[in-house]
Specification:
160 residues; alpha/beta; 6-stranded mixed β-sheet; 6 strands; 45% helix; 22% strand; globular
Length: 160
């Protein structure tokens, strides 16, 4: 993702399945809601059943607020409505979908808006390009939480 402005924090995550994605996102979303953040999703796939099933098994403080987030496949025709009044935007889908959505957001976001964008990539699709994806983001979200990307870049260098 390119720098939209200095007030936008970019985070990436990599998931192996839709279940892995929702398992990774839910604790982070719960913490953000506790801090008063307003969250929206822009999804290429429908995660409603996954979210509902997992929430039944977890004891999260903000269960109803999490259910109120739109977890269905997103319609990108009115991107302004999707991003307005939100502090955190979660985007999940193919590399091309994420790139397209970020370009749309860049066109409509105001320069004074403080926001976090979490781009969620299917690891099976983007594996050869992980370093390039990391280079475009400030930090990484995984099941352990959010951390600096340098740790992952170092691991990639050691494997090459």
């Amino acid at each position: 993702m390119t720098d939209i402005n200095n007030n936008v924090k970019t985070v990436c995550s990599f998931y192996a399945s839709e279940w892995h994605l929702v398992t990774m996102l839910l604790p982070n979303i719960d913490r953000r809601i506790n801090k008063g953040n307003k969250i929206t999703t822009i999804l290429e796939m429908n995660l409603e059943n996954n979210i509902e099933t997992l929430l039944q098994k977890l004891n999260l403080e903000n269960e109803q607020e999490i259910l109120n987030i739109k977890w269905g496949k997103s319609n990108l025709k009115n991107i302004e409505k999707l991003v307005e009044n939100n502090d955190c935007i979660i985007i999940a889908g193919t590399v091309e979908y994420i790139k397209h959505v970020n370009a749309l957001i860049e066109e409509v976001i105001s320069n004074d808006k403080i926001i976090t964008i979490i781009d969620c990539y299917d690891i099976n699709e983007c594996e050869p390009n992980i370093k390039q994806i990391l280079d475009k983001h400030e930090s990484v979200l995984n099941t352990a939480g959010e951390s600096e990307k340098e740790k992952y870049i170092t691991t990639i260098r050691m494997e090459n």
